[in-house]
């Protein structure tokens, strides 16, 4: 289990000494363990939620596209084919995502979907 707390991190001052940043995950720290992961069209038997914390993106669910941005909460029903991409290569989108299992569906192996 990997649990990180802001209380255990010393802030780094960035942006010309004007902004303290508490890195809970260092840039590119999880690149190797998440390699092969993607947000290309996929599906799984769970409800999935995306809360946009910053940026803008295009969410596609079952072929319907919609631009999403900071403050939006997206619900994706179980087994719906979905994907997310930034609006442009230079405009990233950051989301907090979580899934809720469906009663009786059993464990989900995300490597198969």
Q: Kindly state the percentage of residues in helix.
A: under 10%
Biggest pleated-sheet summary? 5 strands, antiparallel
- Cα radius of gyration in angstroms: 16 Å
Shape, per Cα inertia axes: globular
CATH topology: Jelly Rolls
- Poorly predicted residue ranges: none
Number of strand segments: 7
Order of helices and strands: EEHEEEEE
Q: How many domain units?
A: 1
Report on the architecture of this protein.
With 113 residues, the chain is mainly β. The chain contains 1 helix and 7 strands; from the N terminus they run ββαβββββ. It has one helix spanning 31-34; strands spanning 12-14, 19-21, 46-61, 64-69, 73-76, 82-86, 93-101. It is globular and about 45 Å long. The model has no long low-confidence stretch (mean pLDDT 82).
List the topology elements:
Layout lengths: L11 E3 L4 E3 L9 H4 L11 E16 L2 E6 L3 E4 L5 E5 L6 E9 L12
Antiparallel strand pairs: 1-2, 3-4, 3-5, 3-6, 3-7
Describe this protein with a few key phrases.
113 residues; mainly beta; Jelly Rolls; 5-stranded antiparallel sheet; two-stranded antiparallel ribbon; 1 helix; 7 strands; 41% strand
Short description:
The chain has one helix at residues 31-34; strands spanning 12-14, 19-21, 46-61, 64-69, 73-76, 82-86, 93-101. By secondary structure, it is mostly beta strands.
């Amino acid at each position: 289990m990997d649990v990180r707390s802001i209380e255990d991190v010393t802030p780094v001052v960035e942006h010309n000494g004007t902004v303290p940043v508490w890195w809970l995950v260092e840039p590119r720290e999880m690149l190797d363990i998440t390699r092969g992961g993607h947000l290309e069209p996929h599906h799984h038997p769970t409800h999935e939620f995306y809360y946009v914390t910053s940026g803008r993106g295009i969410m596609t669910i079952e072929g319907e596209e919609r631009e999403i941005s900071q403050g939006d909460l997206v619900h994706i029903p179980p087994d719906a084919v979905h994907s997310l991409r930034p609006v442009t290569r230079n405009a990233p989108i950051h989301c907090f995502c979580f899934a809720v299992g469906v009663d009786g569906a059993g464990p989900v192996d995300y490597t198969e979907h």
